[in-house]
Design goal:
Layout: H1 2-8, H2 17-20, E1 38-39, E2 45-49, H3 55-71, E3 78-80, E4 89-93, E5 113-114, H4 115-120, E6 123-127, H5 139-149, E7 166-167, E8 215-216, H6 234-243, H7 261-274, E9 303-306, E10 312-316, E11 319-323, E12 330-336, H8 337-340, E13 349-354, E14 359-364, E15 369-373, E16 376-380, E17 389-395, E18 408-413, E19 418-421, E20 424-431, E21 444-450, E22 467-472, E23 478-481, E24 485-486, E25 493-494, E26 503-504, H9 505-508
Parallel strand pairs: 2-3, 2-4, 4-6
Antiparallel strand pairs: 1-5, 7-8, 9-10, 10-11, 11-12, 13-14, 14-15, 15-16, 17-18, 18-19, 19-20, 21-22, 22-23, 23-26, 24-25
This protein binds 2-acetamido-2-deoxy-beta-D-glucopyranose (2 copies).
Length: 509
């Protein structure tokens, strides 16, 4: 449709304009797992290519996929499936519709799974347009859209970018609004320094009027130009790795400041040479799991739970780590989720909750649900939809002693901020905004778990039931709020008499 090109208008090295033009609210710019509209893709990311692509274009797209996968040490893989597959997948296309439809003008991708599309269909498109405003000139240009699919945001729209690039006024841009800054509530950027080398960084000619660069780089800022590296930059890689529970220390160390136009070209050439073997279209998901970090403190937790044996586990990506239930500090090294549970359970997980004294339920981000006795699991018909929940947690009516079952089960919705009693999934019980300054750093909850061994001294009255909240701040840093607890019956949380600041990773790692 005509408005789409306007909405997503992109230059050769482009950006997703949707948010720049104000058509999405702030949550959509946050990390995918907290995002009401866009969920994180599972692993592998399923896709198929429009048969309209030429063989040369197919090879270029496969090269982009290989290069992204290599940049991420195979922690994220892309797996081709038939167009007819019922798996939810990306359709890469140069067209605006079916066979014979008009070509796309611009390239665009949205930052994650379009939840609406997943609820109503089996695919969402990533536009890879041909021509001067497209991105089929090289696999390097295509990589940007893969990075966006994995959740990276446009570097040049960071709220602090004015210290790093001087952008023309809208009137002097070919596409007004193309460089609108993210606000602090839309995106978080301060965890990593400004990155001229990000694969998402526009070139000065993008959205520029003829003869008027869209932006300039102030004197003295190295490397003084925007290198177009045919690889994820170090911080692109670290950010995506952290979002996906992968090991950011495996990311290649590329010094951006020391890039020169020549070395950038050399790097491009070297990578091109290294990646001349196109991916076959029959490559399946990798069976080699990326190693787990010794701790997962600096990654996003997907979920946390209390196991039936009392262990508190935090899950991120393919890995799990035990927390000490009293100190909330990590206990031992992170392990593969597939080593913790039998029955083929593998991350990333969306929700884990206890349903009886011996029984656990697991919902993976891919939508498979397991019922487990202890840690021995088998699949069952899913009772929850992964895209509709951020976390599921249970409470028990007798903390500190033998829990009384059945427990009450609560589901945090996909916004990550509202939760529901499962016996009444319609009436929201709580919105985290109401907690106000007691969890200042939490943009959302990604994981909630029950513990009945928290130190309750300082509380005005003993809590009947206790839960913990693990979240992440907007930069992806895990924040633990161990003193948030609930008293049942609802409404509301009880709080310690004195304000307790949210704990940061340092306090539990
Ligand atoms: C998400 O998918 C729905 C349904 O296909 C579609 O109408 C909507 O435009 C998509 N959103 C974006 C931002 O692409
Ligand atoms: C990366 O390279 C830079 C410059 O070459 C160096 O200062 C830095 O210590 C390196 N970092 C790592 C993690 O190796």
């Amino acid at each position: 449709m005509a408005s789409r090109a306007t909405m997503y208008g992109c230059g050769l090295l482009t950006l997703v304009l949707m948010c720049a033009l104000g058509s999405c609210d702030d949550k959509k710019l946050r990390t995918t797992n907290a995002d009401a509209a866009f969920a994180r893709w599972g692993n592998p990311v399923y896709y198929y290519l429009d048969p309209a692509f030429t063989l040369a274009e197919v090879n270029m797209i496969n090269q982009a996929i290989n290069s992204i996968t290599a940049s991420l040490s195979s922690c994220v893989t892309f797996s081709p499936v038939p167009a007819s597959s019922s798996l939810f997948k990306i359709k890469f296309t140069p067209l605006t519709g079916g066979p014979g439809s008009p070509p796309q003008t611009y390239c665009f991708a949205v930052p994650g799974v379009n939840i609406t599309a997943r609820q109503t269909g089996t695919e969402q498109i990533v536009s890879l347009a041909r021509g001067p405003t497209g991105c089929l000139d090289s696999y390097c240009s295509i990589m940007k859209y893969l990075a966006i699919c994995l959740g990276k945001r446009n570097e040049h729209q960071r709220g602090d970018r004015d210290s790093w690039i001087t952008v023309q006024s809208d009137a002097n841009l070919a596409v007004p609004g193309a460089y609108t800054k993210y606000t602090a509530t839309q995106a978080y950027w301060s965890r990593f320094p400004y990155d001229y080398c990000s694969i998402t960084h526009n070139q000065p000619t993008d959205f520029a009027k003829t003869g008027i660069p869209a932006f300039t780089i102030p004197a003295g800022k190295l490397p003084g130009f925007i290198p177009k590296l045919c690889t994820l930059s170090t911080t692109d890689c670290q950010l995506i790795s952290m979002m996906r529970g992968c090991n950011p220390s495996l990311c290649a160390n590329i010094s951006c400041a020391s890039q020169t136009p020549t070395t950038s070209t050399a790097l491009t050439t070297a990578l091109t040479t290294a990646l001349t073997t196109p991916a076959t279209t029959t490559t399946g998901p990798t069976t080699t799991l990326a190693p787990c970090l010794t701790d997962i403190c600096s990654t996003y937790p997907d979920e946390a739970t209390r196991l039936v044996d009392g262990r508190i586990m935090v899950f991120a990506g393919m890995c799990a780590q035990e927390l000490d239930p009293v100190t909330n500090k990590k206990k031992g090294a992170a392990i593969q989720i597939s080593d913790l549970f039998s029955g083929g359970v593998t991350g990333p997980l969306q929700a884990v909750w206890q349903t009886s004294a011996t029984q656990l339920r697991i919902l993976t981000q891919a939508g498979t649900q397991y019922v487990c006795t202890g840690t021995s699991c088998s699949t069952e018909t899913a009772t929850k939809t992964a895209s509709a929940v951020t976390s599921v947690f249970e409470t028990v009516s007798n903390p500190g002693a033998s829990p009384t079952w059945p427990a009450t089960t609560y589901t945090v919705d996909s916004s990550g901020i509202t939760y529901y009693d499962d016996s009444d999934p319609v009436t929201p019980l709580y919105v985290s905004g109401a907690i106000g300054n007691s969890i200042p750093a939490l943009g959302s909850w990604t994981a909630v778990y029950r513990t009945n061994t928290l130190d309750t001294s300082g509380f005005s009255s003993p809590p009947a039931e206790i839960i913990n909240v693990i979240g992440k701040d907007l930069g992806g840093v895990v924040v633990l709020q161990p003193m948030v607890y609930s008293t049942i019956p609802f409404p509301g949380f009880g709080f310690p008499s004195a304000a307790v600041p949210a704990q940061t990773t340092a306090m539990w790692c």
